[in-house]
Design a protein that fits this description.
Largest sheet: 7 strands, parallel
Structural class: alpha/beta
Number of helices: 12
Radius of gyration: 20 Å
Distance between the termini: 59 Å
CATH architecture of the domain at 2-156 and 195-221: 3-Layer(aba) Sandwich
Order of helices and strands: EHEEHEHEEHEEHEEEHEEHEHHEHHH
CATH class of the domain at 2-156 and 195-221: Alpha Beta
Strand order of the largest sheet: 3-2-1-4-5-7-12
Number of strands: 15
Helix content: 25-40%
Strand content: 15-25%
CATH superfamily of the domain at 2-156 and 195-221: NAD(P)-binding Rossmann-like Domain
CATH topology of the domain at 2-156 and 195-221: Rossmann fold
């Protein structure tokens, strides 16, 4: 198949591109050319340089090509979907929108999440925009026969360190734990979560490409491993050769200090979620997550260590934890 990734060198899409190439598909990466595919292990893809936000740029980049599947990893608002319908209508056999599992009802009425769990997130604009994107795509499928498919990742990682507060594409929280400094874990650390390695996500995603039966459907694709947030932080610390000095702070209190944490925690990670992967396994029987967090985070830390420039320390991320800890100490009278 000829497969176009809009993006293609990101945290999730890199593993998907590698797997497509390994299976013998022709892979095209449409992006601005600012990231080198080889830095993410992607060898053999054809780069199409264009800005997805500039339709003329995209039309020039793709020429008269048609694609069996187009996957957009960087669509965040309904206008992005409307633009893609204009660009790729009649030029693709399938269009896959990468949404987010944060779209599911918050707070959840039931901790087991299926694709039929209601979509409603009053806490996070990001999730509401993803919901609006999904609705726009389904409308185009119903009314224009645009071949849309929706995929909802949860917290997926490979080249990022996905700890809940003050961490992503930097080394700050690892450095903080290695120095023995306290780290904030939201709530009492016992709510349940799922961490999915991108190489586990990729077989489910790639297995949907070209499957006409998937049109009009939504799928979440996650690991089957269930962890508490205490376990997530402690296993990350163990992978770094240290222990996590955890301080528990209620999610509501954290959110009262930082508007971002309203969405990040109350709209996502503060709610226990157990994802039922039965649907993706029906459509892609070969989908079997194999990388537990304990092993996956070690691989991620090894990737960071391969290039010292990746191991950057962001002072602002340390400041987030320090501010929460100081405020919590003042509120509770605890100074330990």
């Amino acid at each position: 198949m000829d497969i176009l990734f809009i993006g293609g060198t990101g945290n999730i899409s890199s593993a998907c591109a590698r797997l497509c190439l390994a299976q013998g598909h022709r892979v095209f990466l449409l992006n601005r050319g600012n990231r080198k595919p080889e830095d993410f292990g992607i060898d053999g893809a054809e780069s199409l340089v264009g800005d997805i936000n500039d339709e003329a740029s995209v039309r020039a980049a793709i020429g008269d090509r048609k694609f069996d599947s187009v996957a957009n990893f960087i669509a965040f608002q309904p206008e992005d979907i409307e633009r893609d319908v204009r660009l790729f209508g009649g030029r693709c056999g399938q269009y896959v929108f990468i949404s987010s599992a944060s779209v599911y009802q918050k707070p959840l009425r039931h901790p087991v999440v299926t694709e039929s769990t209601p979509l409603k997130n009053p806490y996070w604009e990001y999730a509401r925009r993803k919901i609006a994107c999904e609705e726009t795509l389904i409308k185009a499928w119903r009314e224009e026969d645009f071949p849309g498919v929706i995929v909802r990742p949860s917290l997926t990682y490979e080249h990022v360190i996905p700890l809940a507060i003050g961490s992503w594409n930097d080394w700050t929280m690892i450095d903080r734990m290695q120095k023995g400094k306290p780290v904030v874990v939201h709530g009492d650390g016992t709510n349940l979560w799922t961490m999915t390695h991108s190489e586990d996500f990729a077989p489910g995603f790639v297995g949907l490409l070209g499957n006409r039966l998937a049109e009009g459907h939504a799928f979440h694709i996650t690991s089957d491993e269930i962890l508490t947030w205490d376990e997530i932080w402690r296993q990350a610390a163990a992978a770094a050769g240290c222990e996590a000095n955890i301080v528990h702070v209620p999610s509501d209190f954290i959110a009262s200090l930082d508007d971002f944490q309203v969405g990040n925690l109350l709209g996502d990670k503060a709610t226990s979620a157990i994802f039922d992967n039965s649907k993706i396994k029906r459509f892609v029987p070969e989908f079997t997550p194999r990388i537990p967090w304990q092993a996956g985070i070690r691989r991620t830390l090894d990737w960071f260590r391969q290039d010292e420039s990746r191991m950057k320390i962001v002072d602002g991320h340390n400041a987030i934890h320090d501010r929460i800890l100081d405020a919590w100490a003042n509120a509770t009278g605890r100074k330990d």
